[in-house]
Amino acid sequence: MIQGDVKKRIDTWIANYPEDQRQSATMPALRIVQEANGGHLTTELMDEIAEYLGVAPIAVYEVATFYGNYNHQPVGKHQINWCNSISCYLRGGEELRAKLEQKLGVKPGEVTADGKFSIKKVECLGACGGAPMCKIGKTYHENLDEESLFKILDELE
Ligand code: FES
Description:
Helix content is 45%, strand content 11%. The chain is α+β, with helices and mostly antiparallel strands. The radius of gyration is 18 Å and the shape is elongated. [2Fe-2S] cluster binds at residues 83, 88, 124, 128.
């Protein structure tokens, strides 16, 4: 996996740090490898990153499991990162997520049969003023209700 364009992209990040600080590139390396693997990481890939950076595998696992942007199971073409924190909860986020699950026929952690969508519960995305909200890809969608959420989904290819 760490070869060709993936290797080049990781090397660009490694070059930003002193030679003996290659582990500083752990987060971008995880992101790059995750993208190249269709949106999720595996233990084998994390081990490969550790070997490439010259660090113990646990150092990579710690980062990959701490931050919510890393996925450890297959995801859909569009991953719906659903805010599960207090402001969104108080503004009906849980009820809306239940409607979303019903519409798509999947629970968090699952992928729709056509591979188009997956749902992931995440902690506060820093857009509490727009609760309830979710992030799909790199786009924030705020002040959601059933109508606006389903319209967004229907418009995604
Ligand atoms: S609680 Fe949902 S964005 Fe902060």
